[in-house]
């Protein structure tokens, strides 16, 4: 079989209008999408070359942007797909069920699947929290700043299940122009968000003070020393008067630890379905429409705050997605608000060979009085 050969385009420049249509990338906020694309790989694959081989694990979402690709199964049967004919990643099973060979010169986008899943979940949990915050009238003045914080650089490192704990652990600190907030070489005991004002980031190099950046509202700084348990690698001095929100080291470590989520084992799923327990698919509407569990309802994670009113707090619900990350977040967030939830464990088995026979329902179901009912088909 021909070895995979690709040519990377450098520097990478993404067509954002095109990228925003891809599934599930279209469900992400701009800040999370840009963070994701910062590590993505845009390639040209020449006709006759292989994108991936059957039986391999590459842990990537591979999108065909332009050109034609043949999918070849183990019997030699070829299925032709054309760029833009599908917004989904190509033959996304892991291990790969088919070999993908370029029929023409192609443009391909490769994204690390784990990073995509993390940033997608964070983005949608931030959307969830924005709706929750918007209902709190006493928080009106802080909504914009709070959403800026949730889309900041720090929380790409924090499990999204801890989203509702973040603001309760921040304490305000009034600062003035010229104040040195952290100093290069010192041990870190806090990290900070800028709520108001600007600061300069500098580093000592070759007996000179080198200016690295000017940072403003919503930016977090000082977290690297906490994450890596090392000394500060730069000095941060306030350029203007302002207000910082301080997060202490121990609170930061608590936020890094993912809480326990009540779960249902994959081997228990069939029994639960037989008993009529309602399953909730928290993937996007497009992903749900491709195939889902029998009679599963669709409540995408990013609109969970709106749709949760359709659930009955007396009923038990099982949440699932393709990896388990979005469904764990949904189950946990709703459990915190009094709902009876279980997140399906080992969701990857459901979307692998073991669960393939269970994901055959393409009909639409909706919640009425907390129960799953057939939806409109037109």
Describe the protein's architecture and organization.
This protein is α+β, with helices and mostly antiparallel strands. The protein contains 11 helices and 23 strands. The chain has helices at 16-19, 30-37, 113-134, 143-150, 223-228, 249-256, 269-274, 285-290, 304-307, 325-335, 347-350, and strands at residues 7-8, 41-45, 50-52, 60-66, 68-72, 78-82, 99-102, 106-112, 171-175, 180-182, 190-196, 199-205, 208-215, 220-221, 235-238, 242-248, 263-264, 278-281, 297-298, 316-320, 340-344, 365-368, 371-374. The chain has a 5-stranded parallel beta sheet, covered by helices on one side. Strands 1-2-8-4 form a 4-stranded antiparallel beta sheet. A 4-stranded antiparallel beta sheet has the order 3-7-5-6, with no helix packed on it. α10 links the parallel β20 (316-320) and β21. It is globular and about 70 Å long. The two termini are 45 Å apart. Mean pLDDT is 88; it is low at 1-12.
Structure summary:
The protein is α+β, with helices and mostly antiparallel strands. The chain is 23% helix and 28% strand. The protein contains 11 helices and 23 strands.
Distance between the termini: 45 Å
- Total helices: the number is 11
Biggest sheet record: 5 strands, parallel
Q: What would the principal axes of the Cα set say about the shape? A: globular
Strand percentage lies at 25-35%
User: Using only CA atoms, what is the Rg?
Assistant: 24 Å
User: Which regions have little confidence, pLDDT < 50, spanning 5+ residues?
Assistant: 1-12
**Number of DSSP strands?**
23
- How much helix, percentage-wise, in residues? 10-25%
**Class from helix and strand fractions:** alpha+beta
């Amino acid at each position: 079989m021909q070895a995979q050969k690709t040519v990377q385009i450098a520097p990478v420049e993404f067509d954002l209008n095109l990228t925003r249509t891809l599934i599930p990338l279209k469900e992400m906020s701009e800040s999370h999408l840009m963070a994701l694309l910062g590590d993505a790989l845009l390639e040209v694959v020449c006709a006759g070359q292989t994108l991936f081989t059957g039986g391999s694990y590459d842990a990537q979402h591979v999108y065909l942007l332009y050109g034609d690709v043949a999918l070849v199964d183990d019997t030699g049967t070829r299925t032709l797909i054309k760029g833009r004919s599908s917004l989904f990643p190509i033959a996304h099973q892991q291990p790969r069920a088919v070999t993908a060979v370029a029929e023409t010169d192609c443009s391909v986008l490769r994204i690390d699947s784990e990073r995509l899943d993390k940033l997608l979940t964070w983005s949608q949990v931030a959307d969830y929290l924005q709706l929750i915050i918007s209902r709190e009238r006493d928080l009106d003045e802080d909504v914009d700043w709070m959403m800026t914080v949730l889309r900041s650089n720090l929380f790409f490192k924090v499990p999204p299940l801890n989203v509702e704990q973040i603001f309760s652990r921040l304490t305000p600190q009034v600062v003035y122009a010229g104040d040195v907030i952290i100093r290069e070489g010192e041990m870190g005991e806090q990290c900070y968000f800028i709520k108001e004002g600007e600061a300069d980031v500098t580093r000592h190099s070759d007996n000179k003070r080198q200016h690295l950046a000017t940072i403003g509202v919503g930016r977090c700084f000082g977290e690297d020393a906490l994450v890596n348990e090392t000394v500060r690698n730069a000095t941060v001095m306030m350029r203007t008067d302002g207000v910082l929100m301080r997060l202490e080291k121990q609170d930061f470590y608590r936020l890094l630890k993912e809480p326990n989520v009540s779960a249902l084992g994959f081997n228990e799923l069939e029994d639960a379905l037989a008993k009529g327990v309602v399953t909730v698919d928290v993937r996007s509407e497009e992903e749900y429409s491709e195939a889902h569990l029998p009679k599963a309802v669709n409540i995408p994670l990013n609109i969970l705050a709106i749709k949760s009113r359709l659930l009955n707090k007396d009923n038990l619900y099982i949440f699932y997605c393709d990896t388990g990350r979005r469904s764990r977040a949904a189950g946990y967030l709703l459990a915190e608000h009094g709902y009876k939830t279980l997140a399906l464990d080992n969701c990857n088995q459901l979307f692998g060979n073991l669960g393939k026979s269970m994901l055959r329902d393409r009909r639409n179901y909706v919640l009425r009085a907390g129960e799953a009912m057939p939806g409109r088909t037109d």
